């Protein structure tokens, strides 16, 4: 799996409030570009739309605040490989739902921190959703 080198840095901060505020500003900037649902276009998926609203739902499903902050810090860097990565992701069928495919892109921040971006694709509607970002352990 090839790793996309992002130009963005991680969001600085340790408290959820400050990290969420900066990540939400980036999300609002993306939302302003569309009239309906917020999305980014992906170069790997032939400029298909990847909707980002599911990310926030998935983020608040996490139990600990520490895990939420850890994932949110990578949000600006995660948008870059979603938009610009020409590299093939690691794809597999979702073991829990057979009508979904999970795509996982690898990226690296400017500080050389490795992270993964997960995108869910619905087989029937061919819609793609930005689900999660998390650092490599």
Brief summary of the model shown:
This protein is α/β, with parallel strands linked by helices and 137 residues long.
User: Ranges with pLDDT <50 over ≥5 residues?
Assistant: none
Q: Total number of β-strand segments? A: 7
Q: Give the N-terminus to C-terminus distance in angstroms.
A: 17 Å
Q: How would you state the average pLDDT, rounded? A: 92
Strand content: 25-35%
Query: C-alpha Rg, in Å?
Result: 14 Å
Shape descriptor reads globular
Main β sheet profile: 7 strands, mixed
Q: How many domain modules? A: 1
The percentage helix is 25-40%
Structural class: alpha/beta
Overview of the structural elements:
With 137 residues, the protein is an alpha/beta fold. Helices cover 31% and strands 30% of the residues. The protein is built from four helices and seven strands. It has helices at residues 16-31, 53-61, 65-72, 75-84, and strands at residues 3-5, 39-42, 48-51, 90-93, 100-108, 114-122, 128-135. Helix 1 (16-31) crosses helix 3. The longest helix has 16 residues, at 16-31.
Helices and strands, with pairings:
Blueprint: E1 3-5, H1 16-31, E2 39-42, E3 48-51, H2 53-61, H3 65-72, H4 75-84, E4 90-93, E5 100-108, E6 114-122, E7 128-135
Parallel strand pairs: 1-5, 3-7
Antiparallel strand pairs: 2-3, 4-5, 5-6, 6-7
Helix pairs in contact: 1-3
Main traits of this protein?
single chain; 137 residues; alpha/beta; seven-stranded mixed sheet; 4 helices; 7 strands
């Amino acid at each position: 799996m090839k790793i996309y080198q992002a130009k963005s840095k991680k969001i600085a901060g340790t408290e959820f409030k400050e990290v969420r505020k900066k990540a939400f500003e980036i999300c609002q900037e993306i939302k302003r570009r569309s009239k309906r649902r917020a999305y980014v276009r992906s170069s790997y998926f032939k400029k298909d739309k990847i909707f980002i609203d599911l990310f926030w739902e998935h983020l608040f499903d996490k139990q600990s605040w520490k895990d939420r902050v850890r994932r949110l810090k990578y949000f600006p860097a995660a948008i870059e490989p979603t938009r610009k990565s020409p590299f093939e992701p690691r794809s597999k069928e979702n073991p829990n739902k057979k009508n979904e495919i999970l795509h996982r892109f690898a990226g690296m921040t400017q500080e050389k921190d490795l992270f993964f971006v997960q995108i869910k694709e619905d087989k029937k509607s061919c819609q793609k959703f930005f689900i999660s970002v998390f650092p490599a352990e």
